[in-house]
Design goal:
125 residues, mainly alpha, two-stranded antiparallel sheet, 5 helices, 3% strand, globular
């Protein structure tokens, strides 16, 4: 596992913790549960999500990609069912939690992983 992959995993864990703080109705029993949940979420996104995207491609195209938010919520619900110690009351809570989690993760990855675009021009006079 490369350093960048490990950093992405810990960014995911941090995004889960920050999302948990924003949603009072979502709770994790411990930080160990957050780590396990992030790992299960990673595996589901790696193996199940591509199949779901392929199966729902027509509706995803019709909704201009908005159906991907439903897929994200479904994946998160699956992970919550597989891991004991996470409490999410309903679908709409999972939907908004997954959306906020994705947004936080995107921002953190952009800040921590992207290399700055620096262009140095040397001109001769």
């Amino acid at each position: 596992m490369s350093f960048k992959s490990l950093l992405k995993f810990f960014i995911s864990v941090l995004a889960l913790i920050l999302s948990d703080r924003l949603f009072g109705s979502v709770s994790f029993d411990s930080y160990t549960v957050v780590l396990v949940f992030a790992l299960v979420l990673y595996l589901l996104n790696l193996f199940v999500r591509p199949v779901l995207i392929l199966l729902t491609l027509p509706i995803t195209v019709l909704t201009l990609g908005i159906f991907l938010l439903i897929i994200n919520a479904f994946i998160m619900m699956m992970a919550a069912r597989l891991v004991d110690g996470i409490h999410i009351p309903g679908f709409w809570t999972v939907f908004w939690f997954a959306s906020v989690y994705s947004l936080i993760k995107l921002v953190l990855e952009k800040i921590l992983l992207d290399e700055p675009d620096i262009e140095i021009k040397i001109e001769r006079y």
